[in-house]
Amino acid sequence: METYAKELHFEVPTRRAFINITADVARCLAESGIKEGLLLCNAMHITASVFINDDETGLHQDYETWLEKRTPHQPIQQYAHNGYEDNADAHLKRQIMGREAGAVTRGKLHFGTWEQIFCGEFDGKRKKRVLVKIIGEQSFCSLSSSCQPVQAARGETSKKSSKSRRWWLNA
Predict the structure, then answer these.
(1) How many Å apart are CA 85 and CA 132, to the nearest integer?
(2) Among 105, 117, 122, 159, which has the minimal tally of Cβ within 10 Å of its Cβ?
């Protein structure tokens, strides 16, 4: 089992933003050499989130409108947290949007057709970080273990080698 970790750094010039970080995360995956495993993206700030969705401007505006209706920034006096800070709404927005984990298959992000990874920033105007943590195997099969090919489509095992099959560790 291999692990890889890298922090991505962003300067967010606005209070709120949705930053597409898919290419950055894909570069991390390529650097890691991990072929099969899991990937976690975590905003390292309690007022930011990481989520997976479509990269459409209209959808981003819908998120902004939806989040602001549920947890409006103004009036700041409505939140017990606000006093020294005025970002209680950003903490709540982060809870709604969360963080993301995903699968790594054959060295690629295992996503649906339109899925992209975003950092949602809800209290910007300063530097922010996102942790990319990848855990898995750098090959489809460990050389120290006995392996057999598996047909991914039907889950059938066979002793024959084939380019159309993937190698899995025997349990």
Answers:
(1) 28
(2) 159
Contacts of 79 (CB under 8 A, 6+ apart): 88, 89
56 Cβ neighbours under 8 A, 6+ residues apart: none
- pLDDT tens, 31-48? 999 999 999 999 999 999
Spatial contact of 109 and 137, defined as CB atoms under 8 Å apart: no
Hunting for tokens 């017990």 — which residue is that? Answer: 80
Q: Are residues 41 and 111 in contact, defined by beta-carbon separation less than 8 angstroms?
A: no
Query: What domains appear along the chain, each with residue ranges and CATH number?
Result: 2-139 (2.60.120.460), 140-171 (no CATH)
Tokens of 129: 């970080």
Q: Which of these, 34, 7, 35, 22, lies nearest to 111 by C-alpha position? A: 22
Residue 93's beta-bridge partner residues?
Answer: none
C-alpha span between 170 and 24 (Å, rounded): 33
Q: What is the pLDDT of residues 159-171, one digit of tens each?
A: 333 333 333 333 3
